[in-house]
Amino acid sequence: MQKYLTLRLIKIFIKLIEMKINVGDKVKFLNDVGGGTVTKFIDKKNILVLNEYNFEVPVAISEVIISHEENSYTQVSETVEQEDSTPSEPLEKENIFYPETEVVDDNNDVKVYFAFVPTEADNIVNSDFDTYLINDSNYHIMYNYITNKEGQHFGTDAGVLEANTKLSLDSFKREELNDLPEFIFQFIIYKKGSCDVYSPIQQSITVKPTKFYKENSFKENDFFEENSLIFNLLDKSPMQDELDKLSQKDFKNIIREKESGNKRPRIATKRENKIAAAAITEVDLHINALIDNNKGMSNSEMLEIQLNEFEKKLDEAIKNKIKKIVFIHGVGNGVLKMKLRHELSTKHKKLKFQDASFKEYGYGATMVFIR
Question: Cα(81)–Cα(2) distance, rounded to whole angstroms?
Answer without folding.
Answer: 11
